[in-house]
Design a protein that fits this description.
With 298 residues, this protein is α/β, with parallel strands linked by helices. It has helices spanning 34-46, 93-96, 143-155, 171-178, 190-202, 235-247, 268-274, and strands at residues 6-7, 24-33, 53-58, 61-66, 85-92, 106-108, 111-115, 128-131, 161-165, 182-187, 209-213, 226-232, 249-261, 277-285, 288-295. It has a 7-stranded mixed beta sheet with strand order 11-10-9-12-13-15-14, with helices on both faces. The protein has a 4-stranded mixed beta sheet with strand order 1-6-7-8, with helices on one face. Strands 3-4-2-5 form a 4-stranded antiparallel beta sheet. A hairpin with a 2-residue loop joins strand 6 and strand 7 (111-115). The chain is globular and about 50 Å long.
Length: 298
Amino acid sequence: MWIVGAVLPLNCAASMAEPDRSAHIEQLRVTVSVTDAEIVADRLWSLGAGAVEEVPVDAETVELRTVLHHVDLSQLLNGCDPRAHSHRVTIDATPAETWREFVAPVVLGDLVLCPAWCAPPDDAVGPVVLIEPGVSFGLGDHPTTMMAASAVFDVVVDGDQVADIGAGSGVLSVVAALRGARVIATEISPSAVEALHANLELNAVRDRVQVVTGSGTGGVLAAASLDVVVANISAQVLRPMAAELVSCIRPNGLIVTTGMLADTDNGVDRALEAAGAEIIERHRRDAWECLLARRLRG
């Protein structure tokens, strides 16, 4: 049973030295109708966004803000209201970083996901994953990350071979490595890859994780070679990838998928079943769903 999850009411602003905020960052801003906002945000997540901020413009329009570099945005607004548009702005990182003062460790049973500038809770009894998201904003407090981290902590055992597809800032890779696994972490976003390497070093698991840059699985996963694969990405990416995820798992190996909206017919469960897996657990947090599947024999 996964425990998801408490956020401790701690002020972490003074727990560690403040990061250097003198740099500027390039922010992508996408203006869409309220009805299109959910699907466009889902596409931004699939392109490697670590966080998407939704800012109301008026009763019918919202602006989605995120940080993405060197990605193809040509399909981002397909099928949307023709008035939808996007642009990039360069902003001072100092006010953009004020969120750091208000975050807190996330407690998931015995597992703690802790911002790197915060002090871990005094009563922590299990692993503490330190996270410095950089500009990727992959802090571990999104519902999908919390569910996936709980699942990985629960099912991974010492000696497992694990793949983390779309690793982001590396939270799930670190959790698996701290459980004793050897991990292949794939990621496409350059800003996320930078944060991923930093977090592997921060948690002293760099020697247990192989980082592969590129889309999908990077072609590095041998058939039936893995014990667990985890993918926290959007449904539109997971569906066509389902057969590859199942094929890289040994019989009875486990697949953790999340990033899907729970109240939509996202089709990820059917895609996994068609590829030879069975759904053994379903979990929900807020509007998001997480599936645990097992590869059938044969």
